Automatic annotation (TrEMBL):
Pfam families: HTH_22
Sequence ranges assigned to domain Transcriptional regulator DauR-like HTH in this UniProt record: 63-124
Family annotation (InterPro entries): DauR-like (IPR039446), DauR-like_HTH (IPR039445)
Protein name from the UniProt record: Transcriptional regulator
PANTHER family: TRANSCRIPTIONAL REGULATOR DAUR
Origin superkingdom: Bacteria
Amino acid sequence: MTERSPGTAHPVLVTLAPILEKTGGRLVDPEKATADDIPVVWEGETLACVRFGAPEPDPLAGLDKILDEVATELGGPLTELPRADKQRAVRLLEERGAFTFRKSAETVAAALGVTRFTVYNYLNRERA
């Protein structure tokens, strides 16, 4: 096996990249391959596997979308909102299911520029 510096791809994988982009395929780590993936073997070494189909969902992408929608609705970056609007943002986020995501309180807290404890306080206030 030829030693490569970190971040550089094997020339075979570089060659495949535009083909996969056009055909909806993507490269996956051989250790994460499934039975449906196609191994890319070069000189006896499995460099990667090709997977076709829908990309794996990013679990936080849905939360980011909800955060963006609420920020747009409230007229600006969530970190710049006054306290009352941040409380309203938390209420809207809860209504839209933002807190069903794993580690959502931390993500929402960072987006609002408050602590996780503050987010929980806002949630408890709304629920009371």
